[in-house]
Amino acid sequence: MARLVHVTTTDMSLALLLGPQLEAFAAAGYEVIGASAPGRYVAGLESRGIRHHPLHHATRSMAPHRDVGAMTELYRCLRALRPDIVHTHNPKPGLYGRLAARAARVPVVVNTVHGLYALPEDPWPKRALVYSLERMAAACSDAELVQNPEDVETLRRLGISASKLQSLGNGIDLDRFALDALDPSARAAMRAEIGAGPDDVVCGAVGRLVWEKGYREIFEAATLLRGHSPRIRFVVVGGHDTEKSDQITEQDATRASAAADLTFLGPRDDVERCYAAMDCYVLASHREGFPRSAMEAAAMGLPVIATDIRGCRQVVDDGSSGLLVPVRDPGALARAIRELADDDQLRATMARAARAKALRDFDQDAVIELTLDTYARLLSEHAPRART
Domain ranges in the chain? Predict the structure, then answer.
């Protein structure tokens, strides 16, 4: 049985973002191990048959000394486990994970590029640093599975071998995120929970409470639209991220609620019920790779209003399944929300287009199949060393 180690920063990423994939890899015959910072999701992973190895120094915050510690921990872990494949996920574990795996002489090293941390419009010092590190780390991998096609072109320009680059896309569980999979009463019950009336238009956002996700623009748009008829209710689902320097504090959330018709629901395990209560979805991020929440919203049949950036452009067909607006522009965001709030027929038409696009482009089974094919090909090319 080939041993496969997936490396992320947090156990939440292993459980929520990669969980179905890890289970599929185990079902395909791999011994699957997750390596990340430990947390409350470890027990759930292990109950699904996924072993977990803790990286106590792994952190989401900017702490280079912690990253060096995490790399050392991972190297020792890999020397002890002697896996056949290490699969890393960026940004930080994608860097030190590839280096540690190659140093530990792992036969096959795979990395998923969830979204390059620098964008073409970023200042050149940031681009130079990020792209140089990416080029160095990619020299240690056997395959780069790239979620966003715009990043494929960037990596090619950086000189990364085309033979390593594979366009992966991104996917979700289309059976879970389907309106007809829920009890018919779920929408009414959830709307009652947030206090939305039958004629209210509920505009939702799902994601970690950090400013980079565009919440400042959402809060300002909500303030601009307060008092609009029909009433537009804003709902935010997600928890505070205390490790990030741009975290939204409890005080920030309290001020936003006081200034606008806005409700914070906190982190939820029943996010599909939250989507069911919404009439449209908004993602005002400043940077994305291939946003999962927008895919989930589209699969639930919601028109998506998103910023015109890499990642969002792959999820939203502007004018068909939703609307794209300029980044950092709360006025444009408010106008787009108002346009959908005022037109029931437009929302219904876009909702159908969003669901159709999700069925066509966002199936996680296709991602799993391509990844398994990559593993099989690389294992055949690199005979795994024997383990004692």
Answer: 3-171+364-381, 179-361
Please write the tens of the pLDDT for every residue from 322-340: 999 999 999 999 999 999 9
Phi, psi at residue 48, to the nearest 5°? -95, 10
d(CA 326, CA 306): 9
The set of residues, in sequence order, having a beta carbon less than 8 Å from that of 184 and lying 6+ positions away, is none
Residue identified by tokens 């408010």 is 334
Q: Give 280-313 pLDDT, tens digit per residue.
A: 999 999 999 999 999 999 999 999 999 999 999 9
Between 3.40.50.300, 3.40.50.2000, 1.25.10.10, 3.40.50.620, what CATH number should domain 3-171+364-381 receive? 3.40.50.2000
Burial grade of 38 (CB within 10 A; 0-12, 13-18, 19 or more): middle
Q: Give the Å distances, CA to CA, from 235 to 63, 125, 277, 340.
A: 33, 37, 10, 16
Determine the CATH number of domain 179-361.
3.40.50.2000
Please state whether the predicted TM-score (pTM) of the whole model is above 0.85: yes
Q: Provide the pLDDT confidence category of residue 386 given band limits of 50, 70 and 90.
A: very low
